[in-house]
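A quick aside before the break. I want you to see a complete sequence-to-structure record at least once, exactly as it would be stored in a machine-readable document. Don't worry about memorizing anything.
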Amino acid sequence: METVWFILVAFMLTAYVVLDGFDLGAGVVHLFVARTNEERRMVLRAIGPVWDGNEVWLLAGGGTLFFAFPLLYASSFSGFYLPLNMVLWLLILRGIGIEFRMHIDNKVWRDFFDGLFAIGSLLLTIFFGAALGNVIRGVPLGADHYFFLPLWTDFLPGRNAGVLDWYTVLAGVLALIALTIHGANYLSLKTEGDLGRRSRATARGLWPLLSALTVASCIATLLVRSQVTQNYVAHPVGFLIPILVATSLATMFRAHRVNADRLAFLSSCVYLASMLGGAAFALYPTLLPSSNPAIPDITIHNAAAGPYSLKYGLIWWSIGVAIAIGYFVLVYRMFRGKVSLQTGEHGY
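That is the input. The structure line, written in tokens, reads:
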């Protein structure tokens, strides 16, 4: 059952990144691709029906983590206390920027809330990428499996590393570029005219940087934590994952060249899912590696809840997720197609 719950947690976090990722990416690029008030309203119209629902997957993923692996939840939420508080405030400010923009008919306030939306989205993408970098790199666990990390120390990975070092910053920049392209692909799919063309050009222009950062991050991961290759060597089927990553990048490049917006967006979805899936495959069964050689990792075996809880919790989890998936299918079908300022009732 521990393996099943590992897969379920990975699935929920991947769903969050793929779905809320295009909202975050749209926030990052909207000040550049949307140059008038009407175009910025179009951006908000594109994400308006779904952005808050997409964040449900983050809450559900955290709840699932708490239920299935309480030791990991307690350890990580105490060790990452400062960055988690920063993420919480950024989520709040981003939501304020989206929802309050149209409540004050004043250009100064509109620009202020646009800035909150953009800055909050940009910093969230970096923090989420750095968070994954910390999980892959490892943290200095103590004998009680708790730890503390300062925001930064000397920017070098190791036993005395902080939340930010050169490796986690690289992971944050990769996440920023990947989600920016994801958001631009979504806007080119959902909008028309100059806004759609600028979004398409932005995604196309950032593709070479994404490809380079993907290769650089793989090399850096091997330098920082060479153990990530063990599962791939033991189970060669795992090499299908990097092939899928490369295929998604190639497909995205082709889609950008022929203006196939739907294919480009689906390719960025596959890219994000395969990158996260590759990280999960490399870490299994570890949940949080220890950078202290004297202390064992937190794994699915020493962090899991009791077998009775895992067994019967799966029933209620399945019911809840089935309802959530049904809701998302309904919402995305209702609001499919291009957006315009003449349609929609979301106040943007």
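Two observations worth writing down. The radius of gyration is 20 Å. Strands lie at 286-288, 298-299. We'll return to this after the break.
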